[in-house]
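GntP family permease
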Amino acid sequence: MMPWKNGPALRRLVTCLVLFSLVLIGGECFAAEAAGAEETTSAISLTPIWLVLVGIVSVLAMIIGLKLNAFLALIISALLVSLLIGFQDDADAGSRTEAVVSAFGSSAGGVGIVIAMAAIIGKCMLDSGSADRIVRTAVGVTGEKKASLGLMISGFILAVPVFFDTVFYLLVPLARSLHKRTQSNYLRYLMAIATGGAITHTLVPPTPGPLLVSAILGVDIGMMMAVGAAVAIPSAIIGLFFSIVVDKKMPVPMRPLGANEDKHEPLAEDQLPSLWSSMLPVVLPVALIGTGTLATTLADKEDRAAITSSDIESFELLSEKFAGANALSPAGRLVNSSQLTEQQRQSLKVTPADADQEASFIAAMNDALLDPNFYDEEAFDDVAVPEVSSKLMAANQLRMKPVDRRRMNRALLDAAYPELIAAHRWESPMRKTANSLGLWSNPNFALLLAALSAILTFKLVRNLSWRDVGVDVEESLMSGGVIILITAAGGAFGAMLSQTDIADTIQQFFEGREAAGVAILLLAWSISAVLKVAQGSSTVAMIIGAGMMAAILGGQQPPFHLVYVATAVGSGSLMGSWMNDSGFWVFTKMGGLTESESLRSWTPLLATLSIGGLVTTMVLSQVVPMAN
């Protein structure tokens, strides 16, 4: 008998994970049998799968079984997985511990300031009456029965230009204030915000995930926005109804997030701040981040690093350079790029005779410049690597936008052959505008300004001294600090699961699979979903899933537009969110829920959105195929 209260739920989850591993084991056995005994050495390694399963079981057992503090459980599990990786790779324990520390620091750096500012904003909006003013106004328009719909729509719209985490931080005070007014439906309000924010975060650009998926699959960003929204809307409606059902079956009380959360008396309606000053902490960061995102998207659309005919000094000399290129030369790296087909390689070695051949020549060069492995130290040994290329090569290559990768490689090519290719001009007026907004649209800075506006409103409405305000801010930061620690530990745990090479194992498992019609969409969704469960990041699951689907499809065109493959990948990345996902901890800790409550609300909610997105995608692909 299990020594914990939630034994059945844990058993079900562990059973699903074991079944997942058995599926991969069966796939390996089938592949080995079909290939013959002489090829068994190329069979899929099961080690990453078991390492991931060890991590999953350990963190669930410690949090749900032993009731251990989430931070300790996540750090211990991250260390356990990291040490097992070191044992497998013959790495010393010290370096594996440093890997956990580094991942923790990276995660904390990404969310620390944002969560701290969000904690201040939340407490100040609640104590100043700002959240109450917004809720009273919204309820006056929609009515109490439709309040959750208003929260869902708000999350849906705000998450298009802004990260899900930020949207949730900003809207949670409204959910808490609304619950104080209605004395019911707290979980429904939280899930409504999560529904709207999560679905657009994975389906509608310009958020990074769907933006990169559309680029990898060659889908126009406008098409991705339109179809992504069309898939997201019915899924969000399904998610809202699901939220109502869950709230009725397992109502959750609204718990205080800090020790002195309710120390200020509620204000009468005539004492509440104005609607405009109340909304400023929400509207200001969204406007700043959204403006910067829009400007960057428009600047990226120009794709100034792409080669044009006017950039080529001599097609004849350049084609000769490609034809006689050594494999370990810049020209050889471009011609032999894995991004090119054999036909494109041959086209680069022949001088174009007309405009159509010139266009094909240029297109092949631009395709090759998207190669993440274009740079080779030996090939560029006698080339002074431009500063912009050095900076971009040091950045996260997986999450790099195609426009930045092309810029990185174009600068290298410009430096290698200045006599044949004119240097590209990156700083267009739109790019300068986007750069000028870099500070203001930075989420950390935008939320800092929002926190200051919330503090000022709180001080003026409550007529407090700065010392008293400082005490309240300190209390909010104490509760925010715990959330930062847990979220960063979750990020470190997810990073260690990623280092098991589980993504490569999954990729090998699906390699060589062929699909047609609706089966393509099911495959795209499945790959993304398995990646999400395994390593926790929706964005990473989308990027890798889209890359795998591009490789599986090759030059083949499905009987519908590729945008549906993109939305299937995005929908799959919502499946199986649990404790290795930062969104899980944001929902849990900012909402004041227990881990068990989130596993029974957040996790199935995102699964519902995921399946809803897949079904909507399949229906639209048949009704409105828009075949390429």
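thats it. The first helix runs from residue 7 to 35. The chain has 27 helices and no strands. bye
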